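Annotated sample (chain length 266).
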Amino acid sequence: MSSLFFKKVRGIIIKKPNHRGKVLKDHKKVGKKLIPPMKQIASMQETSFVDELLPCVVWMSALYLRCDGRLATKVIIEFITDAEAIFGENRPQPLYAMGNFSLLSCEQKKSIYDAVKGKSYFEMLLESLEHQHHILKDYPLSFLFEEHMYAVDKVEAIAMLSEDVKTLLDRHSSIATKVQVTAFYSTLETGRLKVCNPVKIPDFNTIFTKPDSDEAKHAAAFARAHMNGSIGMFRQDNDELNIKAHTWVKDFWMQTFNLSDCISEY
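Output written by the structure step:
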């Protein structure tokens, strides 16, 4: 990582299309409403950040709540990059989504553990997530805690988990924005996503350095739009795998609903 939170990402130059005068050409008029092209696709599905993605990025909010922003970003990006690097070209579903660790075999999880346990960020990662591991059954990152000793009791762990979740319920909140931008940036850093010109990639550092600026708002909106699309895209990529990954999402909400003093009001 450079002195900034995120490194500058360059796109691939392609010819800029000419949309002049054609912005609404493909919209379908139903009564007084204009239906955009994407919503006219029969297989298009509505998505919910809270319902579907929050349980898979709640590990990131735990880091941002308990670490300096620069350090949290560094830990998250380096962990995802190191974890995905062991797979080479046969990478699993994106590992910013915690539920996708459930798709891995025991051998694959051990390979990740062996690759990251000696990294400088490893203990910080475990200390920030130990409360989640302590109280959530079938925690997707439990394989990282084989040799870790707990330092938090159940009541404290529940309170911490409640904080992790509540800070993401408003996806426009400061930490929720950082989480979504970091998740999106990880897809660029690992080479999963290549953004081509004329799409101008915003300066993601502004969400930390100038959070109230127009630049920061643009960066946040850019990341949120991608995260919205990624839910549906990866859901359709492999139905069998995604059903298995989505099991974590359902289990998470069921478990947290039943935890005393946690987010049962949700």
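Annotation: Residues 12-17 have pLDDT under 50 and may be disordered.
Annotation: The CA atoms of residues 211 and 217 lie 7 Å apart.
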